[in-house]
Design goal:
Number of domains: 2
Largest sheet: none
Order of helices and strands: HHHHHHHH
Shape: rod-shaped
Length: about 180
């Protein structure tokens, strides 16, 4: 039989090694992983590596045994390390509760939706100027030029919008709105 590197492996060597060491290696890996399926997968992968590297591993039974045990040991330890990292990641997620973060995101979304509803209820030109100024971050003179009105009209409409929103929104929502628009 020919392996991936084009070398001829003696099928009898691989079959003999498999029959002799498979159960031992599974038990060896299982003692560390405590997962029979995982241990079987590790050992099967070790035999695939043996097949791929049979040109490097001599047909000496001691060399084959050493190669297989070493391969299974390394793969098993890698699995254990991976499982520890995965467990630490899960624990870190649990220490900063995802559900709490989701809950806060829902609240923020609802609050911002309520603010946007209030903005949508502003009179036409007042709403347009508010959006251009605070949401699109345009300067007063840019808005005035674009709409063909005076800068003082822009300022007056912005003040009017804030006054209407103060009356429509709960105090805590209005404060949040002010904090949001001043940090843009």
């Amino acid at each position: 039989m020919v392996n991936n590197s084009g070398q001829t492996c003696i099928q009898a060597d691989v079959k003999t090694a498999f029959n002799e060491y498979y159960n031992r290696l599974v038990y060896f890996s299982y003692q560390i992983t405590h997962d029979k399926t995982q241990a079987e997968d590790i050992v099967q992968d070790a035999f695939v590596k043996f097949w791929d590297h049979c040109d490097v591993v001599s047909s000496n039974p001691v060399a084959i045994k050493n190669f297989l045990y070493s391969t299974v040991k390394n793969a098993t330890l890698n699995v254990i390390r991976h499982n520890k990292v995965a467990e630490q990641h899960i624990n870190s997620l649990n220490s900063t509760p995802v559900e709490e973060a989701v809950f806060h995101s829902i609240i923020r979304s609802e609050v911002m939706a309520e603010i946007h509803v209030a903005i949508a209820q502003l009179p036409g030109s007042c709403q347009q100027i508010f959006r251009m100024s605070y949401l699109e971050e345009m300067k007063n003179n840019q808005i005035a030029d674009m709409l063909g009105i005076s800068v003082n009209t822009v300022k007056t409409q912005k003040q009017r919008a804030l006054k209407v929103l103060r009356g429509q929104l709960k105090p805590e929502l209005f404060v949040l709105l002010l904090a949001t628009i001043t940090h843009l």
